[in-house]
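Predict the holo structure. Ligand: FE2/S2 (inorganic) cluster.
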Amino acid sequence: MLEKVRAPGRSASASDLYDWDELVQEDRVHRLIYTDPAIFHAEMTLIFGAVWVYLGHESQIAKNDDFITTRLGLRPIILLRDSQGVIRALFNRCTHRGTTLCRKDKGTARTFTCPYHGWSYLNSGKLRAVPWPDGYACDFKDAKYNVAQVPRVDSYRGFIFGTLNLDAPPLLDYLGGITKPIDEWLDRQPGGKIAVCEANRLKYKGNWKLAYDNSGDGYHVVFSHRSLLEMENRQADVANKGMSYYRSSPDTAPMYMAYMGNGHHFKDKRPAIEKRAGGLWAVEGPAPGTEHYQEELRRRYGARAEEILDLASSEPVNINVFPNFSLLGNHIQVFDPVAVDETDVTWYGTAVVDEEGVLGGAVDEINALRMRTMEQFPNFGEVDDLANFEEIQRGLGCLEDEWVYMHRGLGIPGRVKTDANGVIMAPATDEAFMREYIKEWKRLMKAEPNIAIKREP
Ligand code: FES
Ligand SMILES: [Fe+2]
């Protein structure tokens, strides 16, 4: 059963809030898009309600009755595989007085019982029982008492997305060209599969778009991450370790940025990686404290160890799916807005799933090494970025200095190119992807999504 919802927070229409063309111009955006609570409030419906938003991975709810708790914008969600195997995104909200039903990160449950007055629900969302029902004159079989859920939930190769917008295109059309780098990233793994591991949870006092602005920013790396670059190279027994390709003339390095439409973009640093014997592992690994894995794998597998170790290396790509999902290195990064000036950033490790045994038993060592890569960029680099986001938010407190510029590469003849498929290509250090995604953001802020929720009949 679908219930149409008049977009909340749109007393009149978001188009009445501001002149969006004035706030988002070709080369700059107004500080208000990062600082105004009314804009943030509208975004929770017009962006996070209207497009496909990443919710979780199928491996996190591998068996019937498995669940995780997650978010869709500000809406707490229980993402689960119900007792019949159907993947659902239930609003984590009791239909009685609104309490969250589940306060755990993950688990297995056929039913959810509200901690407040004990109403209980099946994991299909249907109301199962109410304590002392004689105190009610109503018919609890009425579908309005069943838990609300996201009406459209779909996955792409294990990645689960949901949207409240009945008019949103099918997920595959929404993802469009960004499926190509996602496929390449997955197809590197045995069987083309991964499982999501534990999370590294971070938070910053800044607007969620600051993270998305930065997700393909190749301009800041040598400055913001200087200590990481220096540390990686101090540890290296070979020159130019890690992200060294950013150090001199990154504008003309063979990496690139590709804007794929619908706000999605891809920074491909693979062409900038030196081709060395031993592949990516020779460029990246090992980090201190992981040498023994390398030695053990070499001892056990001889020449084959190089190909096995390559799977423990971080693939040099940033694959960004608007508005909240990135695949980078061998991690998944998810951005969850909390308030206009607060965002949760979660990094998930990923493990290879060697169903066919092509790794000859090395799967545990490889997955241990993959988790240890959390100690590299996610721990040492991400904090640099979060510090920048917090300092931007503080800087934007200067009310009278209104504009934020994103015009790197704009107006230089031949610099930004559009290929036959409409993919916009630019140097990895340009802000072309930012200008493109924010145009899409502006289009969405002017649009009228067809928002609905679903309840079991
Ligand atoms: S709020 Fe859930 S049972 Fe009352
Ligand atoms: Fe960064």
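The chain has 14 helices and 23 strands. The mean pLDDT is 93.
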